[in-house]
Amino acid sequence: MSPAAAAQPLNEGAAGTVLGDDGLARPPWAAVDPLLREYYDSEWGLPVRDEQGLYERICLEGFQAGLSWATILRKRPAFRQAFLDFQPDAVAAFTEADVERLLQDPGIVRNRLKIRAAITNARATIALREREGLVDFVWQFQPRATPQPVTHAEIPTQSPESVALSKALRTQGFSFVGPTTMFALMEAIGMVDTHLLDSHRRGSSGVWTG
């Protein structure tokens, strides 16, 4: 699920942008909560092309499943501490004792399957180095066109590319990488631009112009 879908009130599902007190237009999910607003303005939708950053985002999208993105964002400092800044080599060395330790950490989402998935995905990330590497592997699924939504209701929750990416990652040993989760990842890292057309962030990734 994307931050938009996770954070937006149900009665605003078809809403367009909201004009902020700074005169900038944002979607409703990023217009009120200061943390989400900062994330939207400075990070969401910008390209991520380094292995560690991409691995972190895959993990956090997996941890979000069933939760709001605001919850994950507030816990991100604790996640980074618990998972050693999401360095794949470090997390890949985690043992079952580390799983039990993390299950006692109130700062993160204490879900055994999701914690194990982060470790599994670290090992899969390392394995991909023998091929093109995680970054090139993921970015090869960038679509030829991106959505052009006017309202939040026009933003899809998955795409043929996110379905294909999900399937491909699973064949490489990744878990918690379903099609909807992968579409949210694609939004977050700029592979698609789902900023509303009149948002001040539309086109800011540099990946999509015009």
Automatic annotation (TrEMBL):
SUPFAM superfamilies: DNA-glycosylase (SSF48150). It holds the Pfam family Adenine_glyco. This is DNA-3-methyladenine glycosylase I. The lineage of its organism: Bacteria, Bacillati, Actinomycetota, Actinomycetes, Micrococcales.
